[in-house]
Structures are given as C-alpha cells and as structure tokens.
Write a structure and sequence with these properties.
Shape: globular
Number of domains: 1
Strand content: 25-35%
Helix content: 25-40%
Order of helices and strands: EHEEHHEHE
Distance between the termini: 11 Å
Structural class: alpha+beta
CATH topology: Alpha-Beta Plaits
Length: 107
C-alpha cells in the first residue's frame, strides 16, 4: 500500500517548524527545502477583515523521510508540526479523512 502526506492547511499557522525539522533531518542548506511553507495573501475580504493562508508543500527534495519511515517513524515534518496539520500513512486511509476543501493529499 502506498503512503502519502496529508496536509490540512486550514490549521497551518505558518510557524515553519516543518521546514526546519526537514532541513535538519536531511542536512539541507538554509535555502533548500523538502517541505516549504507557501504564503497566500493577505487578501482584504471587507473593510475590517483580511485572509492569510499558509500551505505546507512538499518539494522535489521531499523523500517522505525514507530512513525514518522505513523504521516505522513519521516523517520529521509530521513529528514536529505544532499545529498538527500534517499526517502520514496509507494514501487510501488518509483519503478517507479528507472532509473539507483545505485538505490536500501528496503521495
């Protein structure tokens, strides 16, 4: 069964902890990312309300922490996500957890 990464960006706070954990785990340079936080906005919705979203996106360098996952551990980004918006596991199981439009499955 194929494993995947589920991102619930409704709850991402943009703390960048996943980026740093990935860089440290993989020995990446400060300008290299296995997962990268993309900032969308801010957009003014009305006179007093703005919207700003953060989206963790795996890059071409992401190997889902192969060494960790082969040993039964979660990828470093999932382990260290403070908002709990990253999940790792079988793609079919994670797909069943998608319940709103701000969830994306990478696999």
């Amino acid at each position: 069964m194929r494993n995947a990464l589920l991102v619930d960006y409704e709850y991402c706070t943009g703390c960048h902890t996943c980026e740093i954990a990935c860089q440290q785990e993989r020995g990446l340079a400060p300008d290299e990312f296995g997962i990268e936080i993309k900032e969308i906005g801010p957009y003014q919705l009305n006179e007093r309300k703005w919207q700003l979203d953060y989206i963790p996106v795996p890059t071409e360098r992401c190997n889902r922490c192969l060494t960790r996952t082969q040993n039964g551990k979660d990828p470093s980004c999932v382990k260290h996500c403070q908002a709990g918006c990253l999940s790792y596991g079988p793609a079919a199981v994670l797909a069943d957890k998608i319940d709103h439009a701000k969830m994306v499955l990478f696999g």
